[in-house]
Amino acid sequence: MARRRTSEADADDLPRFFVWVRGLEGPEPQKWSTMDFGIGDWKRPQVLAYLELPEDERRLSLSMLARRYPPPRVDVL
Fold first, then answer.
1. Distance between the two ends of the chain, CA-based, in angstroms?
2. pLDDT at 37 over 90
3. Which residues have C-beta within 8 Å of that of residue 59, sequence separation ≥ 6?
4. How many whole angstroms from its chain centre is CA 77?
5. For residues 7-40, b (16+ Cβ closer than 10 Å) or e, as one string?
6. What is the pLDDT of residues 45-58, one digit of tens each?
7. d(Cα 41, Cα 73) in Å, to the nearest integer?
């Protein structure tokens, strides 16, 4: 059986979605492996925007993705 290097991660092992969620001080970026909204849909109101990442962008850092895909405008009440 061939061994794989531990530094080589499969694309399936990397987060697939870039998500903007409501944070305490405004939109916060996150990377999710699945678009699982949780039991009782408690996450749904927290999600402001999401994007399924192409395979070549899944290794990018949160800061790089946040610059590439800016947060949505959120109206403060």
1. 59
2. no
3. 14
4. 26
5. eeeeeeeebbbbbbbeeeeebbbbbbeeeeeeee
6. 788 999 999 999 99
7. 23
